[in-house]
Specification:
This protein has 28 helices and 21 strands. The strands form 5 sheets. Strands 3-4-2-5-6-1-9 form a 7-stranded parallel sheet, sandwiched between helices. About 45% of the residues lie in helices and about 15% in strands. Helix 26 runs antiparallel to helix 27. Helix 20 links the parallel strand 12 and strand 13.
Length: about 700
């Protein structure tokens, strides 16, 4: 039996954690945390436990209770380095169970250090030279050191226990290698593209990105109208900028999985599947055919040691506020990277303050550059004022826009005009307007409105419905069907009613779009589905109200619509000046930019890590997920029943699930429609509850679509 001593493990972890923490100037802290984290394993009772369960010593086979050990290293750290205790002792104390709330941590380190544990002599004081810090920096420093420690701990254990697996980690691909691949791809793309005004604009955007990439690490924005090629342009900027500033990786955070899948597919085509990690709920590693690559990708999701990561806003930001080992393990690999925040206008305003403060910390303390990219750039600099004077805060100190206002891209790419239909309307009236167009897309705010309008459409030609009453696999298949139909003769009528799930990032092109009243950013996103390729003369996106039937639901969507109305009727709606005016209006309607009180919990030495992690949820999802009868879902459900739950089987089944509000879930339970094959796993197997065109049916009960989906 090959053995690794506790001292060997701690020394290895100290070396790794020091190397990770050296990226932000706290190498000594990483080293100390590594050297002390498992001191508690010197306890005689712990040695008996590990020797017994491992089979190393049959005499101790009966010692099956695992003694706590993490608190010991934390107590020693507090004794040896009292002035730096939170930075060292907190990560040690939580390196298995997660970071503590302050009161629990204080109680923990009051414990007596066991007599059978040796206490090292005090070394030199660790080097700390980060300069001026803000109140909101400390909790991120603790979390980053925690990340360094737990990743180092896991990697050394893996190297000893499963060395073959350890060899699959990491990547030898450099940013320079990826840049070469991208430039070759773009050269071929330019050679094959014709000389059009749209292509001229895209080439201009590309060249501006190269030019403006040579600045120092900081905050940048790329404001490009729909169709301007911002996806590849933003990656080109990021790679040139990373090479210029010696940054290690590119992390692209996107709000919607539909955009993630589309973006990741493009990047894999350009850079190779081996260089792009998708980390989101809809990605199923089992679909990767190459076994070694599949294992490498699975390992990379643990710590993000990969050249390009494509993930969700939710996973990115919630990890930065998590207290859990599994979530925080990857955080140190964000250091000295480029972060691209796509469709940044979708960030929830109730979290603006902690998000903006976090991005400031990532830049100042951890050497990160951030690129905000969208067609609807929000206001994230200067003073942001809300409804109450006390809610205002100072946002980012400055931002460099890559495309100058003088370029007037919105004029050069103007393919759509907005027309606001006067007055309030009924479902029948809007359905009649839609029926006048052979090819039309109508986007509404709720599932109920989508169903009501769909039922009223004339059924000549093709009529399609899209909402979250359909499972993700059904939604994806319907979007592909729409794309295929739009390639056919325009003589065939194609009318689509959808919620805003189709609004951003879905590459479809209709000659006419209708959009229910909403915020300006949502209206412009909908307009991006109209005459997208610019093959027609200027087309029209109509904005309408369903006020006669169904007033806007309260909350953010009403606030956003009121902010647009508060701008007045006369604007060039596609100009950035209008968007800036809109966001100022919207800010004035927001009561709190820190709705979950992160400042109260974290902007102090006594950080409440666990409570903050519970509260920081970008999407307040109170739905119950149910498996529905569509596609291969019933075959997968039979596998679940016969084999039991597994991670990958549940991931596959998530593609055939619909989220229900609690009250609607209870109604279906009362009707006997819901099965529970395993605890908290629910299914509606009867095909009568799932329609091929509109998805899950509850008779006349249709659930409201949330604003952010």
């Amino acid at each position: 039996m090959t053995l690794q001593s506790n001292d060997e493990h701690q020394s290895n972890v100290a070396e790794l954690a020091a190397r990770f923490a050296s990226e932000f100037g706290l190498s000594d802290f990483g080293c100390i945390a590594g050297l002390l984290h498992d001191k508690g394993k010197e306890q005689i009772d712990w040695q008996k436990y590990i020797q017994g369960i491992s089979g190393f010593n049959a005499e101790y086979a009966g010692f099956t209770a695992r003694p706590d050990h993490a608190y010991v290293g934390a107590c020693i750290a507090k004794r040896l380095y009292p002035q730096f205790a939170p930075l060292i002792a907190q990560p040690i104390a939580g390196h298995h169970r997660g970071l503590y709330d302050y009161c629990d941590y204080e109680e923990l380190i009051k414990a007596v250090i066991p007599d059978d544990v040796s206490i090292p002599e005090v070394g030199r004081s660790p080097s700390f030279s980060l300069g001026k810090m803000e109140r909101y920096d400390l909790h991120h420093l603790v979390r980053m050191l925690f990340s360094c420690l737990v990743d180092a701990d896991s990697l050394d254990t893996e190297a000893f226990m499963t060395p073959d697996q350890a060899l699959l980690r990491g990547s030898r691909t450099t940013m320079e290698d990826l840049l070469t691949k991208l430039e070759k791809y773009l050269d071929v793309l330019r050679e094959g593209s014709g000389h059009t005004e749209v292509n001229d604009v895209r080439n201009y955007v590309q060249e501006q990105c190269v030019k403006e990439s040579q600045g120092d690490a900081g905050f940048y924005s790329l404001t490009v109208p729909t169709g301007g090629g911002k996806t590849l342009a933003s990656v080109r900027w990021a790679l040139h900028h990373a090479v210029r500033n010696h940054l290690h990786r590119i992390i692209i955070a996107i709000p919607y999985t539909s955009i993630i899948v589309q973006t990741a597919a493009t990047l894999k085509y350009v850079f190779g599947e081996e260089n792009v990690l998708e980390h989101h709920s809809n990605f199923i590693p089992e679909n990767v055919k190459d076994r070694e690559l599949r294992e490498r990708l699975q390992l990379a999701t643990e710590n993000w040691d990969y050249p390009i990561i494509v993930t969700t806003n939710v996973r990115f930001f919630e990890s930065l506020f998590s207290n859990k080992r599994s979530d925080c393990r990857k955080l140190h690999n964000i250091v000295n990277s480029v972060i691209v925040l796509d469709e940044v206008q979708t960030l929830p305003m109730g979290f603006y303050k902690p998000i903006v403060n976090t991005l400031d910390t990532l830049h100042r303390i951890f050497g990160v550059s951030v690129l905000f990219t969208t067609a609807s750039q929000p206001v994230l600099t200067g003073r942001i004022e809300g409804t109450e004077p006390s809610s205002g805060f100072d946002a980012l100190p400055g931002m460099h826009e890559i495309i100058p206002a003088s370029a007037q891209l919105h004029e050069k790419l103007r393919r759509v005009e907005l027309a606001f239909l006067p007055g309030a309307h009924t479902y029948d009236e809007i359905a009649e307007e839609l029926s006048k167009h052979r090819r039309v897309l109508c986007i509404v705010n709720t599932r109920r409105d989508a169903k009501e309008l769909y039922d009223r459409l004339p059924k000549d030609g093709i009529c399609l419905h899209l909402s979250r009453m359909m499972c993700p696999a059904h939604v994806s298949a319907t979007i592909q069907q729409i794309k295929s139909l739009l390639q056919e003769s325009e003589d065939m009528p194609v009318r689509v009613i959808a919620t805003q799930l189709i609004e951003a990032g879905v590459d479809i092109d209709f000659p006419v779009v209708f959009r229910q009243e909403a915020g300006l950013d949502s209206i412009l996103q909908a307009a991006g589905r109209c005459n997208r390729e610019g093959k027609r003369k200027v087309c029209t996106t109509f904005v309408f109200s369903l006020g006669k039937e169904h007033p806007l639901p309260p909350g953010m969507i009403s606030q956003a619509n009121n902010a647009r109305l508060g701008m007045g009727p006369s604007h060039d709606w596609f100009a950035q000046e209008a968007m800036t005016c809109y966001f100022r209006q919207l800010h004035s309607r927001v009561p709190d930019f820190d709705a979950k009180q992160m400042e109260e919990l974290l902007y102090k030495p006594e950080c409440e890590f666990e409570e903050a992690a519970k509260r920081f949820r970008l999407i307040d999802d109170k739905t119950v997920s149910v498996i529905v009868n569509w596609g291969e879902s019933m075959a997968l459900l039979r596998q679940l029943i016969s084999r039991g739950p597994s991670y990958y089987l549940l991931k596959k089944l998530s593609q055939y699930s619909v989220g229900l509000r609690e009250r609607d879930f209870r109604k279906l339970q009362g009707m006997g429609a819901v099965e529970e094959p395993f605890e908290n796993i629910y299914a509606i197997a009867s095909p009568s509850f799932y329609k091929a065109d509109t998805g899950l049916s509850m008779g006349n009960q249709w659930l409201e679509e949330t604003y952010i989906i």
